[in-house]
Amino acid sequence: MDLKKIIFATGNEGKLREIRMMLDDLGVCVQSMKEAGITVDIEENGTTFEENAIMKAKAIMELTNQVVLADDSGLEVDALNKEPGVYSARYMGYDTSYHLKNQNLIERLEGKRGIERSARFVCVIAAAFPDGRVITTRGTMEGEIGYEERGANGFGYDPIFYLPDYQCYSAELSLAQKNQLSHRGKALRLMKEELKKLREA
Predict the structure, then answer these.
(1) What is the DSSP letter of 10?
(2) How far apart are CA 100 and CA 92, in angstroms?
């Protein structure tokens, strides 16, 4: 399969930077939706990360007839019945700052300690191909919700996500460390292997 160009269905520059770094050795041109001239807004109304990622990838693939990757990711907090989950971006409203969202989660876990604060980042990546094929991969990063915001090397919920094994917050990891450990890094590595197989087939 000819894989010279892939559109990644995101407008998030931080995310796109991580993705380009991870897929660099594939020798594929990774375009954002903006670079591909796509301004469509896709409603993510699925009930799982898989449904949302597939929905996005297929919608853009049908518009462009190109190979499209899309991800859906979020934070699951066990003590809060896995909230915010698929609603992570919409939690407390799209326009609410992540500082306020993070403070709200910290407040909701007041009085809980250690394993009672267990949480994970989940990322599902879907690839939609012009021949109708769809592939998904999933990665997770386990940790706990911290007691404060720390670190400047991340976005979203990174500043409150504590990694006990590394004794630091996700937003304190370098980009290279984050790509190695993160949910998105894991899902991307799995997707990269799938794309390699398809290219060689």
Answers:
(1) -
(2) 9
Known catalytic residue at 41: no
Query: Beta-carbon neighbour count of residue 50 at 10 Å?
Result: 17
pLDDT tens digits along 17-43: 878 888 888 888 899 888 888 888 888
CA distances from 36 to 16, 33, 114, 150, 165 (A): 14, 5, 45, 35, 40
Rg from Cα positions in the chain: 17
> What distance in Å separates the CA atoms of residue 74 and residue 140, rounded to the nearest whole number?
10
d(CA 105, CA 83): 9
- Structural domains in the chain, CATH included, are 5-200 (3.90.950.10)
Instruction: Tell me the C-alpha to C-alpha distance, in Å, between residue 46 and each of 49, 51, 104, 115, 194.
Output: 7, 5, 24, 29, 24
The pTM is what? 0.90
Catalytic residue among 41, 71, 72, 165: 72
pLDDT digits (tens, 9 = 90+) for 40-89: 888 888 999 999 999 999 999 999 999 999 999 999 999 999 999 999 98
Q: At CB < 8 A and 24+ separation, what contacts does 146-152 make?
A: 146/106, 146/117, 147/106, 148/106, 149/99, 149/102, 149/103
